[in-house]
Amino acid sequence: MIYFDNAATTSVDPEVVRVYTALLKEYGNPDSLHALGRSSSRKMEESRRRIAEMIGALPEEIIFTGSASESNTLAIVGYALANQHRGKHLITSNVEHSSVRHAMEFLKQFGFEISELPINEQGIITPEIVKEHMRKDTILVSLMHINNEMGAMNPIGTIADVVHENPTCAFHADCTQSFAKVDVPFEKLDLMTMSAHKIHGLKGSAMLLKKKNIKLMPIIQGGQQEQGLRGGTENAPANIILAKTIRLALDRQQQAYAKAEALRDYLTEELSKLPGFQMLSPKDSVPYVMSIAFDSMTSQVLQNALDAKGICVSAKSTCSSHESGANPVLLKMGKTQKQAEHSIRLSFSLDNTLEEAQAFVKAAKEIINAYGLPL
Questions:
Q1: Across the chain, which distance is largest between two alpha carbons, in Å?
Q2: Neighbours of 273 (CB within 10 A)
Q3: CA-CA distance, 298 to 296, in Å (whole number)?
C-alpha cells in the first residue's frame, strides 16, 4: 500500500506505540490522592512542562484536549463567551476547518457577528484584509496556519501583529497542519491548536496553547481538570506520551520537510509530462500538501482507480470527504468548476519514499490511458 493521505492522519511512531502500551498498564486516576494517582499526575505534569519548554510557553499555558476540533471549539466559543463584554465581533476566513466554521455559526445565536474573509488567488488571508475588517468591538481573529486542502500558508506572525494593534482582541491560530512541520511563531499567538495524530502520534490526543492572560469559559463542564476548562477524567497515558510525540516530530522537522519537498518536486516534474495535468496548489505552498488535477478524469474516478491499485489519496479534506460535489476551497481560491471537480490531494510524511512516488506516476499513466476521457 502507498499512503499519500498524511494530511488526514499519519502512522503512529513505533516508539510512541511502545511507551504508550506500557503506560496503559498504569491505571491511576491523576486526580486521586493515593500513590497510583500521584504517580500518574506527576508524569502528566512533567509532560506538560516538557511541551511548554519545547515551544517556549509556560506549563500552565498547555491545555490537554481530545482533538483539534475540541481545541478549536474551546478556543473560539470559550473565548467569545468569556469576553463578550468587550465586544461581539469575530473574524475568520471562508476556508477554515469545519470545527471553526461550526463554532462561529454556533456563536451567532448569542448575538455575535462574524466576518468571514475571502482568501486570495494564492489561497491566503493577507494582513491587509484583516486590518480592513478590524473594528473596536473585534475580540477574536481565528485563522488556520496551513490550509489542509492545498498547502497555502497564512502569514500568521504578521497577522498577529495586526490583531494586537487592538488591545481588546486576541488571535487564535489553528496549527493542526503546521505544528512540527514548519516554524510556528508561538510567542505571537494567544491561542494555538495542534493534534497528535497529524505528527505520528495518537488519535484522541491534542493540545490547546492558551496564554496565561487569556480567559476562557469551559465548554465541557464537570470538574477541576485542566484548570477547570475540561471536566472529566484525564486521559493520562495520551497526555503523557504527547511530549514524546512532539519531541520526535520537532527533532525530525527539517528532515521531514526536505523529504516532502523532494517528493513534491519529483511528482510535479513527472506528472507534468502526462496529458491534461494541472498543479492547483499555489507556488509558495508548503510541500506537505499537493493539490493536482487531470483534465480527463474527475476526482472520484481517479481516487477510486488509485484505491484499487493500493494507493491512498483524498479528493478533499476528511471533515468534508462524504460531501458530494466540487472541492469548495479551490472554488473560493478562484479555480474553475472543472478543476475543483477533478482535483485530488496528495499529502506526505517522512514515511514516504521516492519509490512510492515513482509507483504513483506509473499508476497515474495507466489509469489515464484506461479511464481518461478524450481531451
A1: 72
A2: 9
A3: 7
Q: Distance between CA 239 and CA 367 in Å, rounded? A: 44
∠ CA 327-329-335 to the nearest 5 degrees? 80
Please list the residues that pair with 140 across neighbouring strands. 90, 170
Per-residue exposure over 247-268, b if at least 16 CB sit within 10 Å of its own CB, e if not: ebbeebbeebbebbeebbeebe
Q: Is 43 exposed, middle or buried (0-12, 13-18, 19+ CB in 10 A)?
A: buried
Would you tell me how many other CB atoms lie within 10 Å of the CB of residue 372? 20
∠ CA 257-141-54, rounded to 5°: 40
For the chain, first and last CA: distance in Å? 30
Q: Average pLDDT, stretch 345-364?
A: 98
Please report the pLDDT score of residue 29 as a whole number.
Answer: 84
* 89/137 Cα distance (integer angstroms): 6
216 — phi, psi (to 5°)? Answer: -125, 150
**pLDDT exceeds cutoff 90 at 63:** yes
- Which residue(s) pair with 210 in the sheet? 191
CA 340 to chain centre: 21
Helix (H) or strand (E) holding 303: helix 299-308
Which residues, including other chains, have CB under 8 Å from residue 248's CB and lie 6 or more apart? 13, 15, 16, 200
Higher pLDDT, 28 or 290: 290
Q: How many CB atoms lie within 10 A of CB 35?
A: 9
- pLDDT, tens digit, 9 for 90 and up, residues 128-170: 999 999 999 999 999 999 999 999 999 999 999 999 999 999 9
pLDDT at residue number 225:
87
pTM: 0.95
Catalytic residues: 319
Q: At what angle do helices 236-251 and 35-55 cross, to 10 degrees?
A: 30
From the list 243, 170, 253, the residue with the least C-alpha distance to 205 is 243
- How far is it, in rounded angstroms, from Cα 207 to Cα 51? 10
Of the pLDDT bands very low, low, confident and very high (cuts 50, 70, 90), residue 26 is confident
Note the pLDDT of residue 375. 52
**Secondary structure (3-state) at 290:** strand
pLDDT of residue 32: 80
Give yes or no for a contact between 354 and 266, defined as CB atoms under 8 angstroms apart.
yes
